[in-house]
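Side project, low priority. Logging it here so it doesn't get lost.
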Amino acid sequence: MAKASEIKNGSIIRFNGNLIAVEEIIHRTPGNLRAFYQARMRNVKTGKLVEYRFRTDEEVEICRVETKDYQYLYEDGDFFVVMDNETFEQFNIPKFLFGNSAKFVTEGMNLIVAFESEEPITAQAPTHVELLVTYTEPAVKGDTATNVTKSATVSNGAEIKVPLFINEGDKVKIDTRNGDYVERVK
């Protein structure tokens, strides 16, 4: 067990039986009152925001979290199967940990996964991926005066919105956090 004064921004602690990521912790000394630590934290599983005041001598459990790069192999139901690049050990990672970026994960891609005592707690894909446009409607000539977009299907089956000048066979860069088109890749 550690004291509240040892908590840092970005730490993962066990708080009321849940894993909580500390987003911000501030030491406060209000006038003639006792000092305390004001913490803004987020539940790792649910994403719910938690605010709490720790006494300076309050004991907390700081969790040991191991973050590594893994290579994505294939999809297995509600899980992504990934492989450790050093030991070649395989793990099943729940898809929901990736959030919206799960639909842009492709074979061979490197993913970052954080484990706390053999349990995956967070996962993230690269912020940008380059995918091939496999289907899109042809643009209507003269319809380029405004910032108009059209639907396109990329090589892994995801649907995105692209500008009118994008054609089938073009390679596009996509932001995996929100699924937005970034640019055409040459």
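Brief comment: The chain has a mean pLDDT of 89.
Revisit when time allows.
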